[in-house]
From TrEMBL:
The protein's name in its UniProt record: YdcF family protein
Record Pfam families: DUF218
Lineage: Bacteria, Pseudomonadati, Pseudomonadota, Alphaproteobacteria, Acetobacterales
InterPro entries registered for this protein in UniProt: Cell_Envelope_Assoc (IPR051599), DUF218 (IPR003848), Rossmann-like_a/b/a_fold (IPR014729)
PANTHER family tied to this protein: ENVELOPE BIOGENESIS FACTOR ELYC, INNER MEMBRANE PROTEIN, PROBABLE PERMEASE
Keywords: Membrane, Transmembrane, Transmembrane helix
Domain (DUF218): residue spans on this chain: 82-249
Transmembrane annotation, as ranges: 20-36, 43-64
Amino acid sequence: MTDLAFTLSKLLWFPARPGHFALILGFIGLFMIWRGRRSGRWLILLSLGFFALLVVTPMNQWLLLPLEDRFPRPAAAPAHVDGIIVLGGAVEQNITEARGIPSLNGAAERMTEGVILARRYPDARLVFTGGQGSFVHGGLTEADVARQLWTGMGVDPTRVIYEDQARNTHENAVNTYRLVQPKPGQVWLLVTSASHMPRSVAVFRAAGFRDIVPWPVNYRTGYTWAAQFDAPFPERLGQFEWGFREWLGLIAYRLMGRTESVLPDRTPAAP
């Protein structure tokens, strides 16, 4: 069942991706007009309208803001931390394999923050979780790239658990819980992108990390005019698609029973 859900999520995302879906509508509309059906112009207008709205409004920000604001970073860093969990999604294993050096993407703050926290809390256990999350991949996992990068940055490899089987956030949580077996009262930080934090917190709580402490990074939103309109169109489209996927993931995880609510509470429920 888990393999089927993973496969369907990858197959269905291609046509459901907003940019792809808008283009598909536009091409269907063109085909209908070519076949003499004037109603196709409405599909073309819908397609162009979506892209036009991305240009003239910050709707990418509107989609991401509720996600990024759900779990702010603690005002004061915990005095003691037992463990730090860094989610994959920031490394490019295929480019790393092709070029021979660790390659990062736009979520690189996950990796740099992991090193910062590891130095701030030298006695904390450090976990990186990430395997292969795509159909087309080479021999390296995300954990392999993380090991190369963090070892090169001076992180002692003996203090890091590299979980290399997870293909999605649900498996990140389940596999990590099985590996570390957190005890009641322990403080575990969860490091991932701010917009990904609601789904991550929800699934980690469901997996058994009831008191996980969100430590968001990689913010992409703001409340100033410059923050909302400065990004070029390709970046706006990417942000909108990321936000759409997160909301879709929140709903899907709830329907699949992987979380206890669509949006997790800001504070964990009492045991």
